[in-house]
Amino acid sequence: MHGVLIISGAYILCHGITALLVTPVQEAFASDVTIFASLLYLPHGVRVLAAWFLGWRAVPALFMGAVASELLFTPSAVLSTLQPVVRVPSAVGALSAPLAFSLAGLLGRDFHAGRGGLPDWKVLLAIGALASVLNSVAQSVVFSGLILPESYLTVAAVYALGDVAGLFACLFALMLTFRWIRLWKLGA
């Protein structure tokens, strides 16, 4: 139960940072895409890391975090526009990273935490990129009735770019955090 709360809480925190800091800036430059996708979607980092540690067991926590985030941070006007499909994007996002790890497993590579030695950030970025492509394609299908045909490729590209950028930002923040902890322990 603690894992569910930690993952959901991390997802909500990252979604809140994205919604409150990234979205207002993005709206100034790409307002027609912003309702569907973010150029820096930090929760994708939570998805990939949770799937890396827990595999498919991460899905309920990711789904709960995504639904709670949508309810907390999505403006009511946007939420009512997306009402017919509001839970489906949350499910798609929650499934994307575990599916990417499973696809890598089908190719004979188990990249989950604890298997194969120390974690490799390049592998996590590659799996995260695959998860992002899966998420991007599926989200574009989910929102196909709401996205203007001329914006379809732009929205799909922003999904993919934003997910990978968010994963990179999360990995970078974790690296800095762990480095700070190591330095603090050496100094103490």
Number of alpha- plus pi-helical segments: 7
Number of strands: 0
What overall geometry do the principal axes of the alpha carbons give?
globular
Radius of gyration (Å): 17 Å
The helix/strand class is mainly alpha
Helix content bin: over 70%
The biggest sheet, with number of strands, parallel, antiparallel or mixed sense and barrel status, is:
none
Low-confidence stretches: none
Give the rounded overall mean pLDDT: 84
Kindly report how far apart the N and C termini lie. Answer: 33 Å
Strand content: under 5%
SSE sequence, one letter per element:
HHHHHHH
Count of the domains: 1
Map the helices and strands:
Elements: H1 2-34, H2 43-54, H3 59-73, H4 76-82, H5 87-106, H6 121-142, H7 152-187
Helix pairs in contact: 1-2, 1-3, 2-5, 2-6, 2-7, 3-5, 5-6, 6-7
Description:
The chain contains seven helices and no strands. With about 190 residues, the protein is mostly helical. The chain has one domain. The radius of gyration is 17 Å and the shape is globular. The two termini are about 35 Å apart.
Brief descriptors of the model:
188 residues; mainly alpha; 77% helix; globular
Give a nutshell description of this structure:
The protein is mostly helical and 188 residues long. It contains seven helices and no strands.
